[in-house]
Design a protein that fits this description.
single chain; about 260 residues; alpha/beta; 2-enoyl-CoA Hydratase, Chain A, domain 1; 6-stranded mixed β-sheet; 4-stranded mixed β-sheet; about 15% strand
């Protein structure tokens, strides 16, 4: 199974489990996670949700080959499974904790913005290389990220698309804590257990009060970004970027205005 789900002591753990492909995410994996989150929302036995990967990598982001096969779904009226997953994450009323080791590329970083608590191992490396692929920010990251870290820092990471390490993420206020690799997951599990032991109604209401109108604003920004993303996906710049990726060469964007 490329996505593992495990429910124990009030905690639903969702784990990326495709290490041979660097945990690159396919449409089927997104659908599994979307379904798991939707089910957790109505399951009284689930009081907290933990999303994690492998010690060497969280996720390399979208499986580009699979992504291109499903690219038409961004414009044909179908709700892509990636959109279903991010909608479910945005609308989740229960606390969501992310435990990240290794690389978290693209949506691997974007999804962290929709979590309540984020813990990184000291080997974590985050990146949002959308502009490097001829694309734009996704799933309200253009709004949420700058709200968290400030405009200039967000502009640097979103415009240049360069990777940044765990300590920089902590200094920006993007994550809660950085721990040694062997300590990170146990610590995140401990924090999830603390949340699961507290009154579920209190946690839900606290989250709802803190989020306020944000879920609606996020949903609106997600739709706006998705329209631009879909259009850019079919533009020459993105086609050049993806072709270069598969041909293992650097893309040449100088040919485009």
């Amino acid at each position: 199974m490329d996505i593992l789900t495990h429910k124990e002591n009030g905690i639903l753990t969702i784990s990326f489990n495709r290490p041979e492909k660097k945990n690159a995410i396919t449409a089927a994996m997104y659908q599994t996670m979307a379904d798991a989150l939707r089910e957790a929302e109505t399951d009284s036995a689930v009081r907290a949700i933990l999303i994690t990967g492998k010690p060497e990598i969280f996720t390399a982001g979208n499986d580009l080959e699979d992504f291109m096969k499903n690219a038409a779904k961004f414009t044909d009226g179908t709700v892509p499974s990636v959109y279903q997953f991010m909608q479910a994450l945005n609308e989740c009323g229960k606390p969501v904790i992310a435990a990240v080791a290794g690389a978290a590329v693209g949506i691997g970083t974007t999804l962290l913005m929709h979590c309540d608590l984020v813990y990184l191992a000291d080997n974590a490396k985050l990146s949002m290389p959308f502009t490097q692929l001829g694309l734009c920010p996704e799933f309200a990251s253009s709004m949420i990220f700058q709200n968290i870290v400030g405009y200039q820092r967000a502009a640097e990471k979103l415009m240049l698309g360069e990777a940044f390490g765990a300590q920089e993420a902590l200094e920006m206020g993007f994550v809660n804590k950085v721990l040694p690799l062997e300590e990170m997951l146990p610590y995140a599990q401990q924090q999830a257990a603390k949340l699961a032991a507290l009154p579920a109604a209190s946690i839900r209401v606290t989250k709802r009060l803190m989020k306020g109108a944000q879920p609606q604003a996020v949903a609106s920004k997600m739709m706006e970004e998705n329209q631009h993303f879909a259009a850019m996906l079919n533009a020459p710049e993105a086609k050049e970027a993806f072709m270069a990726f598969f041909q293992k060469r650097k893309p040449d964007f100088k040919q485009f205005n």
